[in-house]
Amino acid sequence: GQQVMQIPQYQHVQEGEDFTTYCNSSTTLSNIQWYKQRPGGHPVFLIQLVKSGEVKKQKRLTFQFGEAKKNSSLHITATQTTDVGTYFCAGRQTGANNLFFGTGTRLTVIP
Amino acid sequence: DAGVIQSPRHEVTEMGQEVTLRCKPISGHDYLFWYRQTMMRGLELLIYFNNNVPIDDSGMPEDRFSAKMPNASFSTLKIQPSEPRDSAVYFCASSRTGVGKNIQYFGAGTRLSVL
């Protein structure tokens, strides 16, 4: 069945360092979304990528969708304490209306 | 818009008791999803509805779990009887169909503790 894996599972960085989380799907995706969940909070939508090789930026966050539409990455430049949380990718198969959430990467930023 | 509203926010119950979780989706959204989140298993999709009709309930753990959506503005997830391993945070999310509109909006969740 559909599986979406993320690595690493946990990441501790010093404030100001960069951070990257990788997402890999066992099947080709029609699109991929990224969500952020703050500690004690709920997942909140960040962005959606649709096209093969697509790159989108949101301030210090850069999102990429692989050429084969089976992997994606989120890169944060110069992390801040406000970046703390768990980042999830969520893939959608063609024709499907549900998302397959990745295992998540929990980011800790040390001041 | 008030967003997705879930109640209660916290529920503590004893093993064997019935638990009912409630969700009000965002008005105009035609999809509703129930998720369970635990440290061990992450975020799991339990069931989702489209226009109040259950589409996929393959994630429902067992017969003790049931979900209903009697109308477009209300859904329930019931656990009967509850067991300690059901302890988790349960999220409800809603979305709207259409190109570029399949974003899921999550409620604040219900933290369930079964003693």
Sum up the structure in keywords.
heterodimer; A: 111 residues; mainly beta; 6-stranded mixed sheet; 5-stranded antiparallel sheet; 11 strands; B: 115 residues; 4-stranded antiparallel sheet; 0% helix; globular
Task: Give a description of the structure.
The complex is a heterodimer of chains A (111) and B (115). Helix content of chain A is 0%, strand content 54%. Chain A has strands at 4-7, 10-14, 19-25, 31-37, 44-49, 55-58, 61-65, 71-76, 85-92, 100-101, 105-110. In chain A, strands 2, 4, 5, 9, 10 and 11 form a 6-stranded mixed β-sheet that branches. In chain A, strands 1-3-8-7-6 form a 5-stranded antiparallel β-sheet, with no helix packed on it. Chain B has strands at residues 5-7, 10-13, 19-24, 31-38, 42-50, 53-56, 65-71, 74-79, 88-95, 105-106, 110-114. Chain B is 0% helix and 54% strand. The radius of gyration of chain B is 13 Å and the shape is globular. The chains are: A mainly beta (111), B mainly beta (115). The interface between A and B is medium-sized, with 19 and 23 residues.
What's a concise summary of this model?
By secondary structure, chain A is mainly β.
Question: SSE layout and pairings?
Answer:
The complex is a heterodimer of chains A (111) and B (115).
Chain A lengths: L3 E4 L2 E5 L4 E7 L5 E7 L6 E6 L5 E4 L2 E5 L5 E6 L8 E8 L7 E2 L3 E6 L1
Parallel strand pairs in A: 2-11
Antiparallel strand pairs in A: 1-3, 3-8, 4-5, 4-9, 6-7, 7-8, 9-10, 9-11
Chain B lengths: L4 E3 L2 E4 L5 E6 L6 E8 L3 E9 L2 E4 L8 E7 L2 E6 L8 E8 L9 E2 L3 E5 L1
Parallel strand pairs in B: 2-11
Antiparallel strand pairs in B: 1-3, 3-8, 4-5, 4-9, 5-6, 7-8, 9-10, 9-11
